[in-house]
Amino acid sequence: MFKGWLIDKTTDSVTTDLVDIDENSLPEGDVLVDVAYSTLNYKDALALTQSGPVVRQFPMVPGIDLVGTVRESSRDDLTVGTQVILNGWGIGEKHWGGLAQKARVSGDWLVPLPDGIDMQQAMAIGTAGYTAMLCVMKLEQLGVTPDKGEILVTGAAGGVGSVAIAVLAKLGYQVVALSGRAHEADYLKSLGATEIMPREQMTEAGKPLDKARWAGVVDVVGSQVLANACATTQYGGVVTACGLAGGMDLPATVAPFILRGVTLAGIDSVMCPKATRLEAWQRLSQDLDLTKLESITQTIYLAEVKEKAEALLAGRVRGRIVVSIKN
Length: 327
Prior knowledge:
The protein folds into two domains: 2-113 and 290-324, Quinone Oxidoreductase, Chain A, domain 1 (Alpha-Beta Complex); 126-266, Rossmann fold (3-Layer(aba) Sandwich), CATH 3.40.50. With 327 residues, the protein is an alpha/beta fold. It has ten helices and 15 strands. Helix 2 crosses helix 3 (159-170) and helix 2 crosses helix 8 (274-287). The mean pLDDT is 95.
């Protein structure tokens, strides 16, 4: 038996409880992992509080991230004792996830823990930081270099935004942080932001094509903020979209794309190919100042997850939430 959060559905209701789970109940997979740490992400919070249709089947252990040690394996490339990371691939939605002491998963989903990053740091980075790195890599691939101009990071005080600012600043980019939390200005500047822009400047409907400013954008908000970001991006600039905190809609026009050659690049972290994942995690071990993770991160215990999920959805959490599974 082991401890874990379990979301289950009855005829009348959906329940979310921290329970003892029989190891024989674990889903199929060729690797059994002793989970050391997980995380609490926006998607996890939606699932734990039944605030959004995240869970695809029941019962379900939530948690879209995990890091731990291989206990059992039928694969030659993942031996017992290997430390591994798992982000996405539908865990916590279609396959039991990381908010439990054990996980049985496909070895194809696992990435070895990179040298120079410990397990707690890996979850301080987590899906949010790995997604931020995918955005940075896409900006680079499409020719956005530090000399091209400013980079806008929306949802800046959140997990993706925090890591994106830290990485971009270390790489030499000038970063403008868009945030609705004026009290987080010092925090955002400590990560490397050169300017803090109030979120209200981007949330109202703007012109189809407005004054060009951004060489690149990392957007986690979507909706009107993303539309305005596209409308204010320079000729040939790149907007990466990886979130929907502000909504799934996009009230934009084609003007930025056909008149300024702006590229809107979608970033998916869930089904991202393994080779790209490996590159992203290797880049994180090099291009993220790991000393900044302490200010980005708070660590909680497994029993505190549901309460913290409610705070996350209410916008009372900054940066990353690491969940210690061992204690």
